[in-house]
């Protein structure tokens, strides 16, 4: 596995130099900002990610104002206790994409976020989870959330602004090239190897998971 400086140079050479590459790197929000983010915004972001999965992202984006209205501003209490009448109305609501399984996921994830309040709330738990155990956060979201397996949780955490990596095709290709994994990581062992690699690169560079993930993606 190359030192991060070498990977950074590969990416910089492909994107107009180090300064140009730096401008393309985003940084995660502060722990304070994440902790202060209300539950309805976490639910909104998670829901958007779920509805975008396997669908045209632009369609979801164009309809998002309608989603916000239809789901009561993603009020966690209202969504968690959605009754059958409300659910059936949403199945007929043209302001949203009428996918029953994904609508049900909104209710389930709202209930999940309510449960997190016993541990300090979504901002504290999801935003404050240690970056050196990011795969642990992904595993928890997959287990306790709804439709948050695969890369859905990864994108949700990125869109929320928390420190994160996304195992996109390019990031995975770089991980394979570095000998971290030999194929798209899905097993617990492979994900642990990915976390170990990112932890090493964080130690070498002092950068966030988010920055490192972007550099890996742009090195291809």
| Secondary-structure element order, N to C | HHHHHHHHHHHHHH
Beta-strand proportion = under 5%
Spatial separation of the terminal alpha carbons:
15 Å
Structural class: mainly alpha
Radius of gyration: 18 Å
Name the overall outline: elongated
| Amount of helix | 55-70%
Per DSSP E runs of 2 or more residues, the count of β-strands stands at: 0
Number of helices: 14
Question: Which spans have pLDDT < 50 for at least 5 consecutive residues?
Answer: none
Report the major sheet. none
The mean pLDDT is: 98
Outline of this structure?
The chain is mainly alpha-helical and 220 residues long. It has helices at 4-14, 18-23, 31-36, 39-52, 57-70, 76-80, 84-91, 100-116, 122-128, 134-144, 152-160, 169-177, 188-205, 209-218.
Describe the protein in words.
By secondary structure, the protein is mainly alpha-helical. It is built from 14 helices and no strands. Helix 1 crosses helix 14 and helix 4 runs antiparallel to helix 5. The longest helix has 18 residues. The radius of gyration is 18 Å and the shape is elongated. It starts with a helix and ends with a helix. The relative contact order is 0.16. The model has no long low-confidence stretch (mean pLDDT 98).
């Amino acid at each position: 596995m190359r030192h991060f400086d070498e990977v950074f140079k590969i990416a910089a050479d492909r994107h107009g130099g180090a300064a140009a590459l730096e401008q393309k790197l985003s940084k995660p929000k502060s722990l304070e900002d994440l902790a202060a983010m209300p539950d309805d915004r976490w639910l909104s972001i998670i829901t958007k990610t779920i509805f975008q999965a396997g669908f045209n992202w632009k369609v979801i984006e164009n309809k998002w104002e309608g989603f916000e209205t239809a789901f009561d501003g993603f009020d966690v209490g209202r969504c968690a206790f959605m009754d059958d009448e409300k659910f059936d109305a949403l199945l007929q609501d043209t302001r949203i994409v009428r996918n029953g399984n994904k609508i049900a996921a909104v209710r389930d994830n709202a209930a999940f976020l309510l449960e997190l309040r016993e541990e300090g709330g979504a901002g504290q738990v999801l935003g404050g989870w240690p970056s050196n155990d990011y795969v642990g956060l992904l595993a928890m979201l997959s287990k306790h959330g709804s439709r948050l397996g695969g890369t859905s949780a990864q994108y949700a955490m990125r869109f929320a602004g928390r420190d994160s990596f996304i195992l996109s095709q390019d990031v995975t290709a770089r991980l394979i090239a570095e000998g971290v994994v030999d194929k798209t990581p899905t097993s617990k062992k492979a994900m642990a190897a990915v976390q170990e690699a990112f932890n090493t690169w964080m130690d070498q560079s002092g950068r966030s998971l988010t920055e490192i993930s972007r550099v890996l993606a742009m090195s291809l």
